Each structure stands twice: as structure tokens, then as C-alpha cells.
Amino acid sequence: MATLELSIDQDAVASPVRRTRRLGLLFWLAIGWMTFVFALAAFADLLPLPSPFDMDMLERRAPVSAVHWLGTDGLGRDVLSRLIYGARISLIVGLCAPVIGLTIGGALGILAGYFRGRFETLVVGSMDTLLAFPPLILALAVTAYLGQSLVNLTAILGVLGIPAFMRVARATTLTLARREFVIAAQALGASHARILLRELLPNVFLPLFAFFLLGVAVTIVVEGALSFLGLGVPPPISSWGIMIGEGRESLEIAPRLAFIPAVTMFLTVLSFNLVGDTLRALTDPRQGAL
Amino acid sequence: MKAAARSRAFAPIFHVAVVGLALAASPWVVSPAMAQKQGGSITMGLELDIPGFDPLKVGVYDTAALTAASALFDTLTTLDDNGKPQPELALSWSHSEDFKTWTFKLRPGVKFHDGTPFNAAAFKANFDRQKDPANKCRCAFYIANVLSVEAPDELTVVYNLKDPAVNYPALVSYASQTNAVHSPTAWKTKGDDYNRNPVGTGPYILKSWSAGDRMVLERNPDYWNKGRPYLDRLVLKPLPDAQSRFASLQSGEADIIWDDEYDADNIQKAQKDPKLKVHTYVGSGAAVYAFNTKTPPFDDVRVRQALVMAIDRKKMSQAITNGLARPASNPFGDGSWVKCKDDGALPFDIEKAKALIKDYGKPVEFKMIVTATPRGRTVGQVLQQFWKQVGANMEIEQVDQATIVPRAFMRQFQLTPWRIVDLADPDTQMFANFRSGSPVALANYSNPELDQLLDRARVTPDQAKRIEDYCAVSRLVNKEAIWFWTFQNTYYALSSAKLKGLPKIYSGVIDVSGTWLE
């Protein structure tokens, strides 16, 4: 999760120049690719695909053909089908885990940034503790202890994302909490709940959402890494990381088995990054302050 | 004329005699065409990192440890290429009428690497240390059949066995946790450090060892077998990943690597490469799986039979090993002297399997343990697929290799992988695996008929009768489907073509003490 933090700090320093408000071709290409992947993953059951689990053991590593559009993998399963069903896992984990981080981390961050004091010290302190824990080791320990499943994987990746979201939310809240509209609301006698929900939340939400998209990208990569190590979702479910890991076994004979999921993951992560970055540039409160 | 005719007549006989001599010549005998060269150093790529050599600490040696142990230690006997025991630390041996007492005469003048002499007292000290209940050695399980070892004089060792063993010298032939002879002085003085500072009588001496990286062995200049070994230095490296292990062989970084048939692509590539040589040994035993018959759904024989019948071994071999793996229909295998006309193997029959599952009535759902390795996941997924076709749902549970053994001993599984290794005599493992009450009788299955067969086979000196009994065991186990076997054991090592003189790789143990570089 450290990478997330880095990218923010760097951007804060490296992009003092105002970005144009035009979104550009790349942005729309990224949106297009994301929509495409989402649609395929969502409607996988309706598509005329072979089952991602059925093996044709005598047709291993078959080349591209009319039956198998992207060929078959090392156990004779349809690569295209596994890729699309794998997108489901990657997207479910990639979206759900940051949602956990967004909800818990965001709430803690806003509360800490608004109330300050002991509560803030406690929250920041505990988050620092969580950050200090090596994330991969924690993930390994949890999967070893609780067993491998989609839910466990999502939960652990979600928890690991909380500190980063908390920091973004707190930082944004800190700058907003002293602004005129908040002071005005306080002067009008608004309750804390009202200020938090009606004044702060809408303003914190956009930068947090932009950060969420970056979080999705990182989570997809981390899920891939864990699956590659055999600690992601249990077989025979496919995920892009598992496909890369299995494809690695026949890297010299059929490099496409590792290459196809790797490229798909690369494009998807790149899209989330591009969109997230663009949105972040648009919603950065520091720009509004100028 | 007469003389010429006679010599022509004798010529074929003479020829046969010469050829016969040449065939009989083991690698020990130097023939001019295969001149061994002294010197040089080789690097070996092994699959696993070696945890240590102290039997009390490690309990059991895996193949990587055995490979190193075969260079560091000597054993009483060694197997020749025909699988017959030959003298090593023992010069000769004899047995009592009932095969319960074996007497070994030791080789005189042998010294451990630390200079202390090897003798019967040292040998007995090794045994007593492992057998001592106070030491709680997990290795004691492997010498459960030995009541005591006595040392009546300096160079005589007497084994007193609980149960008769007709082929005992063959069982002490490889440098396992219980067969390797350690220096008693060394383990006493080094204490806890002995595990990583082993001292034996073997052809190589440990020079340096950095965990996870490399182990360097130097030639033993005072080795009892003069002129041996040929190579000055061995470097052993753990290279767990098959791809990188093969890559290091291709690049010349390693001269010989351990391999198995799951790395079929590389084995087949090496077969085509004139610079490389594929060493293979068809052993006895098989890759096996045990059902826990005390847990549903495996308490019902119909379910077990159905699952076994659903496995298409030929297809499976194709899928996971490019067809290299040899299907097994009994636990003995082609490398064993137990050959059965009828081993009672259940046929591959999907329809019958479906019918049996249907007959059982309840949904068949269970968990199978696999190792958390690419190999384990592949095998698991293929079996899962076979069983899905007949209506059984298997869930894969990945666990660490090291946790499989304790879980198996505690019966915390429904279906677990296991292995019947390549031993010179089937009794040890058959008795342990199927006799009721044994800690390794994983199926939790008890059958007086099976027990009776196993009890009888181990005390019968007549091999033909033993074969009959073991085939009956196979028929019974196959019929009850308490265990099943997928593939026979085949061991592989890939080396550079320059490395010569490698003996058979019994049990996958690469013994390079007689090899040289050309």
C-alpha cells in the first residue's frame, strides 16, 4: 500500500501546473476498455463460451482455433473463457476490497480530521501500526490460518487498504474543516452529524473516489501476485494471477499462456490508473483553493 | 588346418566370455575405453534446501538430503545396477536360519572425517542413539523392526530383528536417516551444531554450507576406497523452481540436476539435446492416495470404487506429464520383483462409476489435501475434473508439504496424497501401510484377511509364495478401494553429457561419488 502514498506525494510536488479540464482521448479509451471488461465479466454466463473448468486433456496448449479463440492452457481448458471468468475474480476482489478500505478508512479519516484531539491520535497511531506490518506477510498468515477463499482474500486486501484511505480522507478533511462554509455551518448551530454528512462528505468524497480508482488498480495487481504465488482464490477458479502462474510453467513452449492474462491485467490496471489520475486532478481540493 | 578350425570353433565361445566379462564389470572395474579422470568440480541442482543431517533433529531425510548424505556418509552395503547389495562398510554378511539375526563383518581401517576410527562400537552408538526412547527420534519409526544392534568385537555388527527380513542387506544400502553412519565423537562434541556439521566416513567432506544458497563438499583424501572419488569438489544448490533449475543446467551453471516427470517439457527437450543426458530409473512403488474410510462419504465402498473407476490414468499422464508418467494398477510397479498376473485393478469405467454414485444416493462432497505447489494444484485439478464427470464434488485444500505428514498421522484428512517409495523389499511399506494398527495405515481400515496375508508374506523365505501373497494384498486393496495408485515411480536426473559414470538413481538419489568429468 506504500505505493499509493508515494504517488500522492509525488504528484503533489510534481504537478503544480494546472491540468487542462479536457479529458483527452486516452481517458475515453481507458473508459472504453473498462466498460468492455466489465461487460464481459458481468455477462460471461450469457456468452457462448466453453466452461472454464472443462479439460480436454489431449488438446493441451492447443493453438488458436475456431473452437478455442485463444487456444487452450496447460490442462486443455479454454483460455478465452478462463480469461473472462478470471476477470470476474480480479474485478470482484479489485472493487470490493477498496470499498472496504473506502468505507472504513474514509469514515475514520473524516472523523479524525474533523474532531482532532485524542481520537485523531488514536486513529493515526493505529493506522501507522497497520502500515508498519508487512502486507504480504499478513496476507500469507491470514490465508494460511483462515484458508483460501474469495471472501478471505477480499477481506484481507480491504483491511490492508484502510490506512491509505484514512490518510487521504483525513488530509482532505483537515483542509476543508477550516473553510468558510464549515465555519458558517457551525455558526448557524448545525450539529456535528450534519456538518460531517452535508458539508464535508460531499467534498471529501470526490478525491476519495479518485483515490479509490487507483486503489482498484493496485488491488488487482496484489491479487494477481497472491494468486501467482498460489495464495489467491483456490483452484479450479481462474484469475489472471493464477493464469500467469500456470502459464509460467510452459513459458518456453506456449508463452502466450502467461502473456495473454498479463497483457489483459496490464491494460485494465493502466485504465484504472488513467481514469483515477484524471479524476484526481479534477477534484484535487488544493487546486480549488488557488 | 586343424588348429585353425579349432580356433574358429572356439571363437564364439571366447567372444561370449569376453562380452560376458564386460557386462559383469561394474563401474568399479576400469576399462581402457572409459578412463576415469581425476579432478574437476561439479555443481548439482537439487529441488529442496537441506534442513540438516542429525537424525534426532530432522527425523527423515528427503531426496535432497539423501543425495548429499550419499556423498558424506557410507552405509553397510550399496546396491549395484542389478539391485543386489554389494560390500561398502561391511565386507560380508550372513543370516540365521529364521532371518531374524543378520551378522555383518566390517571393513577394517576406515576412519571418520574427524580422524576417529569407524568400528562396531561406533556403529552401535549410532543405532542406540536413534533407538533410545529418551531421544524421541522420529527416525525410530524406521528401525522399529530392529530390536537391538550388538557389537561382539571390533569389526562385527549383529542385528537382532523383531520380524524376519529375508532381504535385509538390501534395505540398509542407501544413506537414509537410519543407515548413514555418523561419527559419535562429532555429535557428542558439537551438540546442537552437529545437525549442520555432519561427520561421516564418506568420499566427501563438508567444507562450507550457507543455508538456502549452497553446500560445498571437498574430496576426502583419506577415503578407504583408494583412487576414489574422482571429482575434487561438489557444490550442491537448492533450486526449487523446475524452470530455473533446467535453465541453470543449460547455461552450464549446474552440471547435474534432479528432476521429475512433472517437468516433462524440459526432460523431453534434454532428450533431444546432444549436450545433455537424461538419466532415468524405473523404480518400484507409486504415487498413491489414501481414503480415510472412517469419514463419510468414504465409509461407503461404493463411493471409493466409483472415484477410482473415474480416473483415466492415460489421459491424466498426457495432461500432466506429456505421457511420461506410467500408470499404476498396483502398489509395486514395474521396478519391483512382485509381478502379478491379476492385481485386481478396477477398470476405468465412467458409466459404472456414475451408477455407483447414484446407488449411494447422497451427494458426494469431500476435501482433498494437495501440496501447495504447482504440481499439487495440477494433479488436484485434474482429479477434480474426473470426479466432477461422475457427479462427485471435490474441494482442493492446499497445504504445505511439511504439514501433510502430521495431518496424515493424526488422520485429519478425507483424502490425502502419499508415496510408496522405491525400496528393495515390499514388506516394510506394505506392512506399515495396510496392517491394522500401524501408524501409517492411513485408510483407518481393518480386515483380518488382509492382516493375515501381510503377516504371512513377511516371514516366508520362498519368493514365489511371497509374490502370491502380495498379489492377493493388491487384489484386496484394489477391490476395497481403500487406497488408489495413479503413477509408478520413475526417477530422473538431467546432466551435462560430459559427466560420466552415474549409477542408477535409486529413489531419485543422485550418488555422484563414482562419477567423473570428461
Describe it for me?
The complex is a heterodimer of chains A (290) and B (518). Chain A is an all-alpha fold. Chain A is built from 11 helices and no strands. Chain B has 518 residues and is of the alpha+beta class. In chain B, 32% of the residues lie in helices and 23% in strands. Chain B has 16 helices and 18 strands. Chain B has an 8-stranded mixed sheet with strand order 8-9-10-1-11-16-12-15, with helices on both faces. Chain B is globular and about 70 Å long. The A-B interface holds A 53-55, 57-58, 60, 74-76, 147-148, 230, 234-236, 245-246, 248-253 and B 242-243, 265, 312, 315-316, 318-320, 372-374, 377-378, 380-382, 384-385, 388, 395-398.
Query: How many separate helices of chain B?
Result: 16
How large is the radius of gyration of chain A?
A: 22 Å
Helix content of chain B: 25-40%
Q: How would you sum up the major sheet of chain A?
A: none
Helix and strand content put the structural class of chain A at mainly alpha
What fraction of the residues of chain A are assigned to beta strands by DSSP?
under 5%
Q: What is the residue-averaged pLDDT of chain A? A: 83
Provide a count of the helices of chain A. 11
Low-confidence stretches of chain A: 1-16
Cα distance, first to last residue of chain A?
30 Å
Q: Helix fraction of chain A?
A: over 70%
Shape category of chain B: globular
Oligomer state equals heterodimer
Largest interface, with counts of residues having CB < 8 Å to the other chain, equals: A-B, 23 and 24 residues
How would you spell out the order of helices and strands of chain A? Answer: HHHHHHHHHHH
For the record, give the distance between the C-alpha atoms at the N and C termini of chain B, rounded to a whole number: 47 Å
The biggest sheet of chain B, with number of strands, parallel, antiparallel or mixed sense and barrel status, is: 8 strands, mixed
